[in-house]
Design a protein that fits this description.
mainly alpha; 41% helix
Length: 204
């Protein structure tokens, strides 16, 4: 969910990765982006954490520029926070290869959050309406691709998703009848059997 005050995206680098390479911070940032501004207390209830933990991680996200203070709501004096950007651009090669391992730690945090989201969705399947049980989908494909073909496939999927993306709605606005916010996750990576990156032999 994008707000007028948000920048479109934030590029991760060796410095700001320190502020987000943690599963709870990824979850907090996701909630602020998809559900709108919140306080440490509401986030603690939403994420089944104590307020001390959410307060600490909110301060870290703010220090590194991922969130900003939002206008107070309902006349309450408690601090409200909102995301500073609509989305995050993954670290580039130089950051991922850095000695501190923060790029990999961030990707591990994403993996945990996405895995938890899928597990929660699976557990909730029985409570869905028949229509949403039919629409829900879990699956994978194993393809044989070159790196260039893999990049092209990812770009095609992103273009399709951008075409399907709905305009941002104000936080708390009602959804169209029968609609739900849907999470689409995809990951593309070499399988374990081919995870080594080989180069063609030098021609003689």
């Amino acid at each position: 969910m994008e707000h007028p005050e948000q920048s479109p995206q934030v590029q991760l680098n060796a410095r700001n990765l320190r502020g987000v390479a943690h599963p709870l911070r990824v979850r907090i940032l996701t909630v602020l982006r998809t559900e709108g501004p919140a306080t440490a207390t509401t986030l603690a209830r939403r994420l089944d954490q104590n307020t001390g933990a959410t307060s600490y991680h909110l301060r870290q996200l703010a220090e590194y520029g991922f969130i900003v203070e939002a206008p107070s709501q309902g006349g309450r004096r408690e601090r409200w926070w909102q995301a500073a950007h609509a989305n995050t651009v993954a670290p580039d090669d130089s950051v991922l290869a850095g000695g501190e391992g923060l790029g990999v730690a961030y990707l591990q945090a994403l993996g945990r959050v996405w895995s938890d989201a899928m597990t929660t969705a699976i557990e909730a399947t029985a409570s869905l309406s028949p229509e949403w049980r039919e629409a829900q989908d879990f699956g994978d494909y194993v393809l044989t691709l070159t790196p260039a073909e893999a990049e092209e496939l990812s770009a095609d999927i992103h273009r399709l998703l951008r075409r399907r993306a709905s305009p941002p709605d104000p936080a708390g606005s009602p959804l169209p009848e029968g609609a739900a916010r849907v999470a689409f996750q995809f990951q593309l990576f070499p399988t374990s059997a081919d995870r080594h990156v080989s180069h063609p032999p030098d021609s003689e």
